[in-house]
Design brief:
This protein has helices spanning 2-20, 24-34, 38-41, 44-60, 64-80, 84-100, 104-118, 124-140, 144-163, 168-174, 179-191, 195-215, 224-243. By secondary structure, the protein is an all-alpha fold. Helix 11 (179-191) packs antiparallel against helix 12.
Length: 257
């Protein structure tokens, strides 16, 4: 009944905490205990969430076949209840497992099919990971043009998500765990012997963080005339940094007053 579901939910929350702390054995035990809460497992969404958790832990423990098995169960359930996010998570873990097993072709097909099926319902937080993984698969397969397109989509998703955040403090910390996208983009550019593009991507990543960093620093002084000059100087700095960002200045020219 309700008590069983609450106990299972508490175990799931605890398992999530252990996963975040990379305490995989403890997280695994929590999820396995959930399987004993039969009332909990009657709800497809709850079962799907548990299978995704088990798949993630199995992958991190290096049990790739086991991870794939749990992903299949999670994907099947998410399709039945039409839960897109759960399906995306299952696809990502399955693709990671296939890549780790050297099955880049299978991983690539899985990601492409998943992206095409989900299409406009693609959750951005999972979408950039799918495009980044697809880019890596395409790069390993020697399809450089496709890899370039996929990683550009991944960067656009990340930067679009960042721009939609309400506060500068949130935006400045947002991209810290998204650096894998820019790392892959640099690898793709390097594979094409395009040094200028690689440096452009480095500047693109740096400018996003640096622009936010400076934008968060408000300098206040007592003298109103000096304050006005400081505000003007800071705006000029922001325009200068932003001008090196392809998202803000396609011409690459430096803005002046």
């Amino acid at each position: 009944g309700t008590m069983i579901r609450e106990q299972a939910f508490s175990l799931w929350v605890l398992g999530q905490v252990y996963r975040e702390q990379n305490k995989l054995e403890a997280a695994w035990d929590c999820y396995r205990l959930i399987e004993q809460c039969h009332g909990f497992l009657k709800i497809p969404q709850d079962k799907m969430i548990m299978y995704v958790g088990l798949a993630d832990i199995a992958f991190k423990r290096g049990n790739f076949q086991q991870a794939l098995s749990y992903c299949e169960q999670a994907a099947k359930l998410s399709s039945e209840i039409n839960l897109v996010v759960g399906r995306q998570e299952a696809i990502i873990i399955a693709a990671q497992s296939l890549l780790a097993m050297g099955e880049k072709s299978r991983a690539q097909k899985l990601l492409k099919r998943g992206i095409n099926q989900i299409d406009s319902r693609l959750d951005p937080d999972q979408g950039y990971r799918m495009y980044e993984l697809l880019s890596r698969c395409e790069l390993k397969s020697g399809n450089l043009p496709a890899s370039e397109q996929s990683i550009e989509k991944a960067m656009n998703v990340v930067e679009g998500m960042r721009e939609s955040l309400p506060g500068k403090d949130l935006r400045s910390s947002f991209t810290r765990d998204k650096t894998v996208v820019y790392d892959t983009a640099i690898s793709v550019a390097s594979a094409g012997n395009d040094a200028s593009q690689a440096f452009s991507i480095i500047e693109r990543a740096k400018s996003r963080s640096f622009l936010d960093l400076i934008g968060n620093r408000e300098i206040k002084v007592a003298d109103k005339k000096r304050q006005g000059k400081l505000d003007k100087d800071q705006k000029a700095k922001l325009r200068y940094i932003g001008s090196s960002d392809p998202l803000h200045n396609d011409s690459g020219e430096i803005a002046h007053d």
